[in-house]
Design goal:
The structure is a single chain. By secondary structure, the chain is of the alpha+beta class. It has six domains: about 5-105, Rossmann fold, CATH 3.40.50.20; about 105-125 and about 210-335, D-amino Acid Aminotransferase, Chain A, domain 1 (2-Layer Sandwich); about 130-200, Dna Ligase, domain 1 (2-Layer Sandwich); about 340-455, ATP-grasp fold, B domain (D-amino Acid Aminotransferase, Chain A, domain 1, 2-Layer Sandwich), CATH 3.30.470; about 460-525, no CATH class; about 540-610, Beta Barrel (OB fold (Dihydrolipoamide Acetyltransferase, E2P)). About 25% of the residues lie in helices and about 30% in strands. The chain has 16 helices and 35 strands. The strands form nine sheets. An eight-stranded antiparallel sheet has the order 14-13-10-11-12-15-22-20, with helices on both faces. Helix 4 packs antiparallel against helix 5 (about 105-115) and helix 12 (about 400-410) runs antiparallel to helix 13. The chain is globular and about 75 Å long. Residues about 475-480 and about 530-535 have low confidence and may be disordered.
């Protein structure tokens, strides 16, 4: 049995692995970058080793440094978590060659399933149904465009080495194909070091169904039922649940059996996920579910499977990596109730879901849910890594019970001053289509405006805050039997608001500020001051960097005429691309952005002068 374990990861998954390893009596070793020197996973582990500067490519993605850290710390095994090097076959082989135990599948299995085109061919050979598309080696734009025409629009471009929605574009018409292909290839090359793509037919009313599989070195392979991950924003999962709504016993048997066959086809050992796309236009049917890809690692959403099966998947990973057989066979596994998980991100829905960074002065995630997180109150959210700060998981006897519990916990959460998507998650969980389980991957895209959280708190919350900010006492001009009501200006997140309130309800002394938490959102309210007001926006033509990042594309030159909405600069930050666009028709009067340059938050990148009519 493994006695000491190095976790080659960070954040919530590192803390999650440490928690199980400690319960099993296994000594843990964390690794950390400069940015993570004070991180929770570093303090949770028995030992921690520094592996480099803050950027992941100089620390968490440097396999040699991680293997050296394992040797220096005396660790017997390396668990990669998810992301980073978890599906890197060369790193897995290097771990094994170093005489260490790799907590994951064989490198050959990672290689077999790591490229989407080869994996699809392998699945076709194994009799697993796959979506129509193009898997060819000819990657010329002309050939790809011709294949897209043959498949029929809309089509989906997918990076063969991709994941997490990166390197993926839906294209609705031939005229849009060239630009979408270039963007997809650029993102794929940046994220995965491989710009090859495949094409797939876009499925009508698509649902994303995946099956958790597990194999051991004794030839056993089981499934732990399915998850539904259809609620997505820009191909990234938002809310996951298990089991899948509307899945009957016959369809479940068909899809789960296909997943087991897929795992057996690559002699799979450890935890893996077989992902399927389903055409849900006539409900879930076995003849309308097709293989998409296999993730040869633990998934972000694995807790919902743990909650409905009572299985600790990390414990199973460590047991299997130690050479032991699976603790349970298929007939001993069953579904108990329903589980739902929401991914809580440090991002601002009001600003196009741009990542938010800074210190978590307030970090309260409410009650009633399992919380998997790698941060705590007082922690700093840096710009270097994925913006997910927590997973909130609810379990109940029914889908509605799990949904209501999760929505209530998110509604009660309070995080400040870092912005989060909690309010957006509450709206998604309460949307009538989600409540009724009318799911498909386009729901968020269609209902985007309806899912946006409120811009302001309600009148009652504003009045309570205004009273708290106002010294108690009798209002000037008060008359007997007349309603006591004042109207006064305040600052709400720096913007001027006029609030009607009863000043007699205030404290004896005024407060400097009050935090209002409502619907998963938090606002700061302050007394009015002459020098207050909202921060500058692009209304004056100044395009500022919304966060620290790297300029990956500059689409204009000084003196160019631009139109409203035209792309000016593309910024890469927190593993995502962000396009900055012109706020109105005008001329590029100033350009301070260069491709490859690093910029800090608030840097003036472009200045647009409005065209005079």
């Amino acid at each position: 049995m493994i006695q000491s374990l190095l976790i080659a990861n960070r954040g919530e998954i590192a803390c999650r692995i440490i928690r199980t390893a400690r319960a099993m009596g296994i000594r843990t070793v964390a690794v950390y970058s400069d940015a993570d020197a004070d991180a929770l996973h570093v303090r949770d582990a028995d030992e921690a080793v520094h592996i480099g500067p803050s950027p992941a490519r100089e620390s968490y993605l440097v396999g040699d440094r991680i293997i050296t850290a394992a040797r220096q710390s005396g660790a017997q095994a390396i668990h990669p978590g998810y992301g980073f090097l978890s599906e890197n076959a060369a790193f897995a082989q290097a771990v094994i060659d170093a005489g260490l135990i790799w907590v994951g599948p064989n490198p050959s299995s990672i290689t077999a399933m790591g490229l989407k085109d080869a994996a699809k061919q392998l699945m076709q050979d194994a009799g697993v149904p796959t979506t129509p598309g193009y898997l060819g080696a000819d990657q010329s734009p002309a050939r790809l465009a011709a294949e897209a025409d043959a498949i029929g629009y809309p089509v989906l471009i997918k990076a063969v080495a991709g994941g997490g929605g990166k390197g993926m574009r839906k294209v609705d018409a031939p005229a849009d194909f060239a630009d979408a292909l270039a963007s997809c290839q650029r993102e794929a090359a940046s994220s995965f070091g491989n710009d090859h793509v495949l094409l797939e037919k876009w499925v009508t009313n698509p649902r994303h169904i995946e099956v958790q599989v597990f194999g051991d070195s004794h030839g056993n392979v089981v499934h732990l039922f399915e998850r539904d991950c259809s609620l997505q924003r820009r191909h990234q999962k938002v809310i996951e649940e298990a089991p899948a709504p509307g899945m009957d016993a016959a369809t479940r048997e068909a899809i789960c059996s296909a997943a087991v066959r897929a795992a057996q086809a690559v002699d799979y050992v450890g935890a893996g996920t077989i992902e399927f796309i389903a055409d849900g236009s006539e409900g879930l049917r076995a003849d309308r579910i097709w293989f998409m890809e296999m993730n040869t690692r633990l998934q972000v959403e694995h807790p919902v499977t743990e909650e409905i099966t009572g299985v600790d998947l990390v414990e199973w990973q460590l047991l299997v990596a130690s050479g032991e057989p699976l603790p349970k066979q298929q007939d001993a596994l069953a579904i108990n109730g329903w589980a739902m998980e929401a991914r809580l991100y440090a991002e601002d829905p009001a600003k196009g879901f741009l990542p938010s960074i800074g210190r978590l002065d307030t970090f309260d995630l409410g009650a009633g849910c399992r919380i998997d997180t790698g941060v705590e109150q007082g922690a700093d959210i840096s710009p270097f890594y994925d913006p997910m700060i927590a997973k909130m998981i609810a379990h109940g006897p029914t889908r509605e019970g799990a949904r209501a519990t999760l929505a209530a916990a998110l509604d009660d959460s309070a995080i400040w001053p870092v912005r989060t998507n909690a309010g957006f998650l509450v709206k998604a969980l309460e949307h009538p289509d989600f409540v009724a389980a009318r799911l498909d991957t386009g729901l968020i895209g269609r209902e985007g405006d309806a899912l946006m959280p409120a811009h302001h708190p309600d009148a009652e919350a504003l009045a309570d805050a205004a009273a708290a900010l106002t010294p108690g006492g009798v209002l000037a001009g008060f008359r007997l039997n007349a309603p006591v009501r004042a109207q006064a200006p305040f600052l709400l997140d720096g913007e001027a608001v006029t609030v009607a309130f009863d000043p007699r309800e205030g404290d004896a002394r005024a407060l400097d500020d009050v935090l209002i938490a409502q619907g998963g959102q938090v606002w700061q309210m302050q007394p009015w001051r002459v020098d207050g007001g909202a921060s500058a926006t692009a209304s004056d033509g100044a395009i500022l960097s919304p966060m620290p990042g790297r300029i990956i594309a500059v689409s204009v030159a000084a003196g160019d005429a631009v139109v409203k909405g035209q792309k000016l600069v593309t910024l890469e930050a927190m593993k995502m691309e962000h396009s900055l666009t012109a706020p109105f028709d005008g001329t590029v009067a100033e350009l301070n952005a260069a491709e490859g340059g690093q910029v800090s938050e608030g840097t003036l990148l472009v200045k647009i002068e409005k065209v005079e009519s």
